[in-house]
Amino acid sequence: MRWFTVICGLVLLMVAVTAGFGQQVGPKFLDRSFQRPGARALGMGGAYLLATDDATAVAWNPAALVNVKRFTLPVEVTGRVNFNILDVRDLKDDLQKISDEIPSQINTPDDAQRIANAIRGAFNRVSDFSQRNPTLSGSLSPVVGLSFGDYGLAISNSSFFEVQTYTGREDPINLGINYTPPDTLHAVGGAISLTSVGIAHARSLPMGLTLGVTVRGVRADFIGFRVGVSLTDVNNDLIPDDADKNNDGIIDTDIVAGTLFNRVDDSRFTLDIGAIWEPPIQPPMLKVRYAAVIRNALPVKFSLPVSYDPGSTPGLPLPPNFDFRLNPEIDLGALAEWRGRTNLVFELHNITSSNGGKRSVHAGVERSFIGNVFAVRVGYDDGKPVFGFGINLVVLRVDLAAGFNPKERAAVGISLRF
């Protein structure tokens, strides 16, 4: 089946890019919330509302553009996964082996027997992997920007994927085919990419208040799949029971069935509003600032049709559409700067739990040395400890950050300043 080969390619893409997905397929069951902290922010626990001084403020908090005193050209890339990438590479190889042995049709029990023999080893390894890791998820968040005074331009992307697997069940993903346990494997998954082009402006107001606005054009892309495999062989004749349940030589059910959903896309415009408040009266040796951001202040609906590869199993039930909304998200944060060398940050992200995401806590500290040339960072990124460091050479700043398990999250950032 040709669609299965494409599925393997999709899994490989997911490894390259890295919320309740459950049994459903579609973007509304994926995390569509904001996913774009940069390297400096990740080192401080993913806190980005106040700790930015270049054009990435367009994507994170437009009010922070007032911190940008010169022309900047930043490039940031952040990746997060909840699994060992090397393990998924092996998983991809096993899925590829399965796809290589599956013809376009299974017409006789002999066909089913030959295919079952060919894929049984790979099936067992994939099944074992799914029992250890029933949910795979990850994200990739690149951003590039350009700032000039209180104005900025940024192109950013937030890509998120999730794959949910089930073993030993009849039809957990609503394929409409009740496979016979225990040797069954089902998987459902998808990837959503939100690409934004934003233009922002910030303005300082009396009493230490700064407001910023970003107008964003957003393109949404979605691709997904679902697949079921059954190799249950109760009578040990090397023929899967579901292939010929009546033992009459007539194939009753494909031992592999599923749907590959083609990429679909739609574009809309929305608005982000950011604010920073620096109280006029400050404690000695300490400067405190507060921030709030409303993302998607103008809620938008994306209309995505259902399109599937012709090699998919015919007759399976299909969702009516892949429509979804981007609703407002609210982030809050505070930063305390001590003696101009140490920053303490604390932020609450997505306190509204919008767009398939969840409320998260981010906290960290940054310490600068040798005239702010070097910086060391450590933080708490929604349950994961992280660390990072940076080098600031006036016209060039380089930032690196990672979790204590770098295979799960890492970021790199380069910013030119003139």
Which SSEs are present, and which pair or pack?
Blueprint: H1 2-17, H2 39-43, H3 57-60, E1 72-81, H4 85-100, H5 109-132, E2 135-148, E3 151-167, E4 184-204, E5 209-230, E6 256-277, E7 286-295, E8 300-302, E9 324-326, E10 329-338, E11 342-349, E12 360-369, E13 374-381, E14 384-392, E15 396-403, E16 409-417
Antiparallel strand pairs: 1-2, 1-16, 2-3, 3-4, 4-5, 5-6, 6-7, 7-10, 8-9, 10-11, 11-12, 12-13, 13-14, 14-15, 15-16
Helix pairs in contact: 1-4, 4-5
Structural class: alpha+beta
The helicity comes to 10-25%
Q: Compute the number of helices.
A: 5
Radius of gyration: 25 Å
Largest sheet: 14 strands, antiparallel, barrel
Strand order of the main beta sheet, please?
1-2-3-4-5-6-7-10-11-12-13-14-15-16
- Please, what is the average pLDDT? 86
Query: End-to-end distance, in Å?
Result: 55 Å
Shape: elongated
| Model regions low in confidence, pLDDT < 50 over at least 5 residues | 1-23
* Oligomeric nature of the chains: single chain
Residue fraction in strands? 35-45%
What are the secondary-structure elements, in order, as H or E? HHHEHHEEEEEEEEEEEEEEE
- Quick one: how many beta strands? 16
